[in-house]
Each structure stands twice: as C-alpha cells, then as structure tokens.
Amino acid sequence: xxxxxxxxxxxxxxxxxxxxxxxxxxxxxxxxxxxxxxxxxxxxxxxxxxxxxxxxxxxxxxxxxxxxxxxxxxxxxxxxxxxxxxxxxxxxxxxxxxxxxxxxxxxxxxxxxxxxxxxxxxxxxxxxxxxxxxxxxxxxxxx
Length: 143
Prior knowledge:
The chain is mainly alpha-helical. Helices cover 57% and strands 3% of the residues. The protein has 6 helices and 2 strands; from the N terminus they run αααααββα. Helix 2 (17-34) packs across helix 4.
C-alpha cells in the first residue's frame, strides 16, 4: 500500500521527490501502529484510532513535525478514500497541530527584566500585566 501511495503522490499528484520522501517517511509509524500482522483492514479504521495515534505523537514531536504528520496523514486518508479502502473521509478527524510550545523564558531577558516580569504576574491566573512591566522597566533598577 505504501508503494502505491508513493506512486500516486508522484505520478497523479505530482509532488516533488523531497515532499514525497517526507510524506511517506512520517507515515511509517502510523502504518506500524495500525497495520497488524494480517495486513491492513482499512475499512475498520476509525477516527478514534487516528486521533489517538496523532495525540500520542503530539507529545514527542515539535509543532513543525506534527504539522507535517497531520498533512501527510490527511493526504493518506484521502488516498484511501479515493481508492475505496475506506468509505468516509476520515481526514478531518485529525486535530490541528499547536503552533508553538512554551519551552521556557526568553534568553534575552536580563535578570532585572526577569524579576520585573515575575513580580508583575498574577499568581492565581499566570497573567502578566505587560504595560506595568514596561513602565517598571523604564525606572532605574534598585540593586
């Protein structure tokens, strides 16, 4: 099935070799997770299985790689529907990839700026009053 899909992408859709490599490469874990020893039973594929797989990947991938996986999965699911392997379009069951991750504080903040930022946080809601931080930053530091 993977070879047929690759041929479909290159010949019918006209994707570049690099895009084709990305699409087929990110599908390998999906195929490994959902294709049993007896082969694929695509007609039994459910939106729950697809979402569960995607959400499991979301914990281990960057937002960019997750978006690529989403795009490739949607393409593959449309291909399965086009081939008659599945009856309904399951491509819309995949949630959007988050656009960014909160990985930490910006490295460019000075210790003084960081102290101002933290002092202006509402600890109950984790909201920062940015206007107050900017006003406080314009006053000289008392160290």
